[in-house]
Design a protein that fits this description.
binds the ligand O=c1ccn([C@@H]2O[C@H](COP(=O)(O)O)[C@@H](O)[C@H]2O)c(=O)[nH]1, Rossmann fold, binds magnesium ion, alpha/beta, globular, five-stranded parallel β-sheet, binds adenosine-5'-triphosphate
Length: 237
């Protein structure tokens, strides 16, 4: 997987060049203003200041290693890493009007409304001088994906998907020790359920679009199969 991802990222350099003068220039847009309230109008189309940005979505279940691999990609290839989860946690710690709602949503393993998350991501893109972005843990759902594509008028160039056995994901999250409110077995069960129900359709979408680069963790005899995993009978809310 790593070799494939590497090749993908290397080829992003040429894509960076060919995107000059591309479709972006034809879109009606207005500049995103850093620090503005997290509201969008119905027909807003907003795009990052770099019209030639290379956007890579990084997907995978909870604890699959997205953040870990992003750090390595940043070191090697100089991408700007934007973790949607980290941006939401940062927003909770600020005096945001959405703080309580975001915290409750994370605690329940549910998904924060698209308008909020997309705006946080675009705010960071606007503040960065980088042209290459790794957007980690987003889009979480088809609704997220459609909102991002509508608001930016753009699709990602690449999508990396880190596949990992559920038993391994649970083990990693429970031993992460970063003090996250959602790193407990009850919330993990919900996050896995939400991942399967809402995130995998996004993975399928990008696979059909030919944008998906999938990495597989070898399946060993101890893997918990999907039908046996903890929380399988819980309802997704
Ligand atoms: N290949 C690996 N082998 C063993 N442990 C790993 C591996 N990759 C990451 N980890 C560890 O697993 C934990 C989860 O990794 P990481 O935070 O990168 O996952 P994530 O996909 O970003 O999770 P989340 O969606 O919950 O943010 C961390 O403690 C990390 O050090
Ligand atoms: O686009 C997103 C990303 C994250 N969330 C919420 O945050 C937690 C934690 O996300 P991590 O990527 O695991 O750090 C996630 O379970 C969601 O509740 C979100 O709503 N939208
Ligand atoms: Mg992470």
């Amino acid at each position: 997987m790593w070799k494939r991802a590497t090749a993908t990222l290397k080829s992003s350099l040429s894509l960076h060049i060919t995107k000059e003068g591309s479709k972006y220039n034809t879109f009606h847009c207005h500049r995103f203003i850093s620090g503005s309230p997290l509201h969008f109008q119905e027909n807003d189309v907003i795009y990052p200041k770099h019209v030639d940005s290379v956007i890579t979505f990084v997907l995978g279940g909870p604890g699959s290693g997205k953040g870990t691999q992003c750090a390595r990609i940043v070191e090697t290839y100089g991408f700007k890493h934007l973790s949607a989860g980290d941006l939401l946690r940062k927003e909770v710690l600020s005096a945001s009007e959405y703080g309580t709602m975001i915290l409750d949503t994370i605690r329940e393993g549910r998904i924060v409304p698209s308008a909020v998350t997309v705006k946080l991501i675009l705010r960071e893109m606007e503040c960065s001088d980088n042209h290459k972005f790794l957007i980690d843990g987003f889009p979480r759902s088809e609704e997220n994906r459609i909102a991002f594509e509508r608001i930016t008028g753009s699709e990602p160039d690449f999508v990396l998907f880190f596949d990992c056995p559920e038993e391994e994901m649970v083990k990693r999250v429970l031993s992460r020790n970063q003090g996250r409110i959602d790193d407990n077995i009850e919330t993990i069960k919900k996050r896995l359920k939400v991942f399967e129900a809402l995130n995998l359709p996004v993975v399928d979408h990008y696979e059909k679009r030919g944008k998906l680069h999938r990495g597989c963790t070898p399946v060993g005899p101890g893997q918990i199969r999907s039908e046996n995993r903890p929380g399988k009978d819980d309802n997704v809310k």
